[in-house]
Input
Amino acid sequence: MKFDKALCRFLRSDKCILANSGRSLLYKLLSVRKSFHADCNEVLVPGYTCYSVAAAVARAGLAIRPYDLAPNTLSPDMDALRKLASGRTLAIIVQHLFGIPTPLNEVREVAHSMGAILIEDAAQALGGSLNGRLLGTDGDFGLFSFGRGKPLPLGSGGALIGSDPKMLECMRLNTRSAGIMHFAVSAASQAASKPCIYGIAEKLPLGLGETVFEPEFENLSMGSLMARLGARSLEYLSALNTHRNSIAGIYRQRLREGFSIALPVDAKPVYPRYPLLIGPGPIPEELRILGVRRMYPKAIADEESISPFLADNSAATPGAAQIALNLATLPTHKGISEPLASHIARTVNRYYS
Output
């Protein structure tokens, strides 16, 4: 079965569009939406998120307006979000960061009251659910990514589903033949899952381990070879997520109280990495060798390269800034055994109290 059809069946969606990346699809979606609503020029984005989200908004010629997050849940600060939403709001993006489900009902109400669309960023959440509903299927549009560190880690690629057939039909991506580089990234991503060589693959010129704001990116359809790889890999998603949740359970049990992020009721996360708030400062080398990493270095509002694209440079997101300062993540992939996860947790406890 073709990858797009397999994803449609898995997500119970009528149509799925594939591309070389999630940010390509987000850019095209926002561009199409803008063509229908030229008077709306702002997109509300999480104050702490992947810089690719901001890059897609900037490339679409729209202003980035970050809203604040609650550090203990990574969910939107609804008071802050309501104050920022206006008649200029074209879309609100909400994310399931690290596969942790974010409740959408209040955000959806705000978006629709302003005539905006709700885009569900499920790039890190394929296979997770909240209240029995798969993540990525509860917004007006659902966005998925298959890059390194994602639930389905193909090395590159993205998918988009949505409830507006007219907008999806207007999405046009440049075609391409499958490139060797994408397969090199995929292979390096697999190699990087081995703890003994964590740092080696990140030093290769493949873009691994980088967090860079780049509004000028390739905007292409998914190559046929990558699509075939995706179709074959999708059948292993459930097993991958089961392993990740098992490893996350060990971390949750063994780590000191207060490190972990709280979950909403009836949430089934997928944890491509396990987030915890350990405090500021460089990660000790012993932990880096074990795969412990910081994530995005700054909140969106505090990143100098993004600043020219903000709707309002005076906007403050203190919760997002706290997350950027204090958050670290632990590996959960198939290369992490239960004894190794216990060792990682003990080592984290030893360095942080």
